[in-house]
Amino acid sequence: MAALVHSLDLGTGPLRVVVKDSIDIAGYPTRAGCQALADAPAATQHAAIVERTLAAGYRIVGKANLHELAFGMSGLNAWTGTPDNPNFPALIPGGSSSGSAAAVAAGLADIGIGTDTGGSIRVPAACCGVYGLKPTFGRLSRRGAMPAYSSLDCVGPLSADLETLIAFMAAVDPTFRVTADDTPPSLGALEVHADPAISGAVAACLEGAGLDSSTRALPQMDEAYAAGMALINRETYIACRAWLNSGRLGADVERRLRAAAQTSDAEIREAEAVRRVFVASVDRLLEEHAVLALPTLPHFPMTRAAAEEGQQDLTVSSLVRPFNLSGHPALSLPLATDHGRPVSLQLVGRRGDDAGVCQAARYLLARSAATPSIKGDAYV
């Protein structure tokens, strides 16, 4: 199914982990799904998250596939193969952490470790019908992850089970603690542009849990999306430009990199100005509510066939990318399907309160008829 590019057996614990192949594992090359890195030497040191995973007693069973250079949202990869979407086989697996999401959806691993620069954990989690957490920016060390520098990227987990995801976070970050508190979360639903079926499912989830589903405005979402795009373009171009004329890049990534090269200094200055305003706006709203709720995806994922014919859809990240810009923690959790199509809810919390986001998800799962069971066995 192309979810994994290497099978491994590191560690002795019972719970299995796959690690996105943009993250170093000592003794194995980090190729980031890119033919230009086919001859990359083996990493000499584990990435920080790999060290913590092994120290916490988990067993690493593979390196996970991804959208080439972690620079795409479909999850397609002509060189390493595209992971199948186990729960929704006609649809894209989502990117860029496609293999991490597909592996946990297929039961090949209990945890998938991915990276999220513009939705690259939450989008594939939503496409494959699993849970995916983008932690607060900087919470989990990026040492040993590609690219070496990013002002947006976060390392985080995916799982088919919320409690497994929570336990993993607590194991690799001793400051992360979700309490048994049963108090209803102070939650504010955001007014966003999304397919009515998706918006309706989100509202039904909140109402089913006895929470207010009336929406609040968060200005600058569109501007934050554009700013996030400008920054990822500049930072990815700087990190990957050495391979641009190698003749060994996929066509979609080569086009994006060439376009990214045109990102101007003025666009970057404007993006940073938008970042400051948007962070303040999110923080103000989170003074009123501990958690914000909105759809993970604005519309249903495209079919794999359409993607393989060359269609691209970067706007699938329009509701997730703004929170890379702001650095707030965000969790995608699957809801009941709509005519066999995946629907997910995104919860966003105060910076540093990743546990509060997971606590709110636990509360919703326990009370809303709109959500699948924790094991995800409601998928059709």
Automatic annotation (TrEMBL):
UniProt xrefs under SUPFAM superfamilies: Amidase signature (AS) enzymes
Gene Ontology MF term list: catalytic activity
InterPro entries, per the entry: Amidase, Amidase_CS, Amidase_dom, AS_sf
Amidase domain segment(s): 17-174, 249-358
PANTHER family, A to Z: GLUTAMYL-TRNA(GLN) AMIDOTRANSFERASE SUBUNIT A, MITOCHONDRIAL, TRANSAMIDASE
Entry's family note: Belongs to the amidase family.
Designated name of the protein: Amidase
Species, as recorded: Larsenimonas rhizosphaerae
Lineage: Bacteria, Pseudomonadati, Pseudomonadota, Gammaproteobacteria, Oceanospirillales
